[in-house]
Amino acid sequence: MSGSSTPDPRSLVCDSCWTNVINTQAYEDVCLRRRIGPGEEYFAFKYESTLTPNMWHESCSWCQIVRSIRSPWIAASKRKAYADEPISVRFAPIIGYPPYEETAYTVDVRSGFCYWSAGPLVLSAAADDLAAGHISTRPIQRNVSVETTATQLGSWLRDCEQHELCSIQADVKLPTRVIELNPRDSSVPPRLITTAGRRGRYATLSYCWGPRPHGLLSTSNLNEYMQRLPVDGT
């Protein structure tokens, strides 16, 4: 759409998937988690298709999902053996999957007596996407240095304080080492500190190293990290 950084959805899928899957009322019913009737189960979108060699070469996002579920391990030399293989695809909401209760889905693929499934898949929409009014989950922010990330972290911490099952945010004995964060106007950069039994408040964030781990703490860089953490990627 004009003025948006969100790609045109039509450009993300092939003609077949656009006509038979994405641009259909059934697909919209599943994405918006509409119910078949008052108090009844949610819609599930089912359709018949064919696994073709072209699906390994298509840039279509939906073809990639189906292909990865059905046969991610098939070598290129053997793909012709699966040409014109009839498959049945089912796209449906997953119920009772916190914290993504309203945005978790599954895609199932069947071929003969064989069955494959992928899920949970979490549906998200960029803030400037037309779907953002219906989908509250936003794409993962991979740049932790931007203002929106700090805002999101603050929001999560405030939400956590209201959760009955979360720990009371009181001063506790800190882990052996923590990262010290200072106010934005401070001249002291984020750094690692040893707590030596100190008490205080801290938060634990999950992370993924990725294919090329970097920034790992070791005895060789401990002193360096206690002066300054390489938050700029250097």
Task: Give the helices and strands, then pairings.
Blueprint: H1 15-22, H2 25-31, E1 45-51, H3 61-70, E2 85-93, E3 104-111, E4 114-122, H4 147-162, E5 172-173, E6 177-180, E7 191-194, E8 199-200, H5 222-225
Antiparallel strand pairs: 1-2, 2-3, 3-4, 5-8, 6-7
Which features characterize this protein?
234 residues; alpha+beta; four-stranded antiparallel sheet; 19% helix
3D architecture notes:
The structure is a single chain. It is built from five helices and eight strands; from the N terminus they run H-H-E-H-E-E-E-H-E-E-E-E-H. The chain starts with 14 loop residues before the first helix and ends in a 9-residue tail after the last helix. The mean pLDDT is 81. The protein is elongated. The longest helix has 16 residues, at 147-162. The strands form three sheets. A four-stranded antiparallel sheet has the order 1-2-3-4, with helices on one face. It is α+β, with helices and mostly antiparallel strands and 234 residues long. It is 19% helix and 19% strand. A hairpin with a 2-residue loop joins strand 3 (104-111) and strand 4 (114-122).
